[in-house]
Amino acid sequence: MISQRPPTVWIDDSHAIVRRGMAACLQQADFVVRGESAVLSPEPVPDDLDVLVFEYGASSLRRAVRLAEGRPTRLVATVREVTEQSVREMVDAGVSAILPHSTLTADALITSLRSVVAGNVALPGDMLTRLLLHVTQTSHLGPGGLNTRERSVLRLLADGMDTRGIAEDLCFSERTVKNVVHDVLTKLNCRTRAQAVAVATREGVI
After folding, report:
1. What range(s) does the HTH luxR-type domain occupy (predicted)?
2. What's the Cα-to-Cα distance from 74 to each of 85, 120, 127, 177, rounded to whole Å?
3. Which range of residues forms the domain containing residue 71?
4. Which among 122, 189, 196, 204 is least buried, having the fewest CB atoms inside 10 angstroms?
């Protein structure tokens, strides 16, 4: 999702100092901070909101997904304690980026949100490893499987490349890459690129 206007973001965290710190960092990077909350109270207004940054919790995840449903709003979760279950739940719910508090820096926050706004995912490598262990679904591939072009795009996604990098590497247009990614997500029954890479890796497709 690339926009000509400054990207808009809502910041949710139980600690006011953390919220203010994230807001200050993002405002310096030309993000427009629409508001802030603790445990999604007050509830964000999702209209024309590009990114909702929320503190992960079982109830907050459900509320964030409900708020973003049917909208282009991207979900970014900050996590105080990273577990295999929490990573699995967030990726299955369609969260585009997961940011552990223990490693969260201004640069990491800004880079991750810019990547998410551009339509990519931001999932640390150790979390991808955790995701690869997620085997709750036995089969995602339909009868047709994935074609050569789709597997090529998936391999580059697994290498951490973004849409522009994949387009340059394969000599495709960025629109073509986005269309291929959309087809892959549909075939694999996945919500995010990270989940698609994990599923394809687990099933030996790439």
Report:
1. 139-204
2. 21, 10, 19, 19
3. 8-132
4. 204
Name 137's bridge partners.
none
Asked whether residue 104 falls in the same domain as residue 69, the answer is: yes
Q: What is the pLDDT of residues 16-44, one digit of tens each?
A: 999 999 999 999 999 999 999 998 989 88
In this structure, are 154 and 125 located in the same domain? Answer: no
Instruction: Tell me: do 56 and 128 sit in the same domain.
Output: yes
Q: Based on the domain organization, do 123 and 46 belong to the same domain?
A: yes
Q: What is the pLDDT of residue 139?
A: 43
In a domain, 3, yes or no: no
Asked if the model's pLDDT at residue 135 lies above 70, the reply is no
Interhelix angle 193-202/84-92, nearest 10 degrees: 110
Q: What angle do CA 66, 70, 74 make, to 5 degrees?
A: 75
CA 127 to CA 102: how far, in whole Å? 14
Residue 143 lies in a domain: no
